[in-house]
Amino acid sequence: MAVTWNTKWKWITGYSADSVEWCPVERFKHVLVCGTYQLEKKDEDAISGAGSANQPKQKRLGRIYLFSINDETTHLTPIQEVDTAGILDQKWCYHTIKDYPVLAVVTSEGVTQLYRLVEENGTLNLRLWIENIVGGEALALSVDWSSNKSFMQEPNLVISDSSGTITVLQIVGDCLQKIGQWKSHSFEAWIAAYNYWNTDLFYSGGDDCLLKSYDIRIPEAVVINRSHEAGVTSIRNNVEVEHQLITGSYDEKVRLWDLRQLKRCISETDVNGGVWRLKWHPFDKSIILAACMYGGFRILQVEENVSVMADYLEHESISYGADWKFDNSVSLIATCSFYDCNLHISELKVKNHPLV
């Protein structure tokens, strides 16, 4: 199959880039956010006392870059920059909440932030709407919305953190209310994600190599799977194919699951890189975009098994962030990498494929 994956634009982010997310909401699908994370640089005198009880903790800085990318775009320039703590993950709600597109952000200070995308006089801006501290000294590592398949006026969010804890929050009015909390993993809980077909169910993956399934109505994990050979870093339910789930791991494998039988995966595929993010194509749910850390980016195809269709190796550092534009006329992909602070927009074309 003839596949081309060509870079259209590149941009240097300043801080180290680790997440990119296209807005899925109608009228705002040209909107992209890039999240960054950087340890604050201290002078030698400030850091020479490392280990001292009085040594201040090094601060983790973050910045959200907001872009508008359309048919008239000729180069990348952010239309807004929002300073915050270090950003570990971001996700847009798939529908508006109280008439606004809403972006969920989780930070190195253990905070969940909700930003509204506000349009005034033809200008778009992110405005902080709600904040909630998940807890203690933990870094909030991932976030997912319950409403990717079905509209919910007050959806839930599931957040994982560096203490191994999973927290479920619900939007209630202009607040985030804690619904439940689970001490799920003995090390970092890298990822948490919903079952979009039944939002009482969600999943988590941790550095303890465990994949866990939960029912929000039950205090303990329903299923514990031990088949990953390293930390579980990515989990994504398919919004078009019920019972289908994919996971990624530091063990460099993508696994395909049937949620009715989580004891054993359907297939596993080596993608030659630790898998940090997996994203289903927004219009063809047999195609997956994978960020494979030191192995670059991959396009995967799901048939009976998962296979590698193409790779993208133009980044020169850890490949963390990846997402598809929600556009059925062109397959634009945003990718970002960490230490080289690079954001790329590229286009994927597959000969004789109706969508890409």
Describe the protein in words.
The chain is mainly β. The protein is 1% helix and 52% strand. It contains one helix and 28 strands. It has one helix at residues 44-47, and strands spanning 3-12, 16-22, 31-39, 60-68, 80-85, 87-92, 102-107, 111-120, 123-133, 140-145, 156-161, 165-172, 175-183, 191-194, 201-205, 211-215, 223-225, 232-237, 244-249, 253-258, 267-270, 277-280, 287-291, 297-302, 306-312, 319-324, 331-337, 342-350. The strands form seven sheets. It has a four-stranded antiparallel β-sheet, with no helix packed on it. A four-stranded antiparallel β-sheet has the order 2-3-4-5, with no helix packed on it. The protein is globular, with a radius of gyration of 19 Å. The two termini are 12 Å apart. 50% of the residues are buried.
Short description:
With 356 residues, this protein is an all-beta fold. The chain is built from one helix and 28 strands.
Helix and strand sequence:
EEEHEEEEEEEEEEEEEEEEEEEEEEEEE
Measured as a percent range, the helix fraction is: under 10%
- Cα-atom radius of gyration: 19 Å
Number of helices: 1
Mean pLDDT: 92
Q: In oligomeric terms, what are we looking at?
A: single chain
Shape: globular
Strand content: over 45%
Strand order of the largest sheet: 1-28-27-26
Which class best fits the helix and strand makeup? mainly beta
Q: How far apart, in Å, are the first and last alpha carbons?
A: 12 Å
Low-confidence stretches: 43-55
How many individual β-strands? 28
Q: Characterize the main sheet.
A: 4 strands, antiparallel
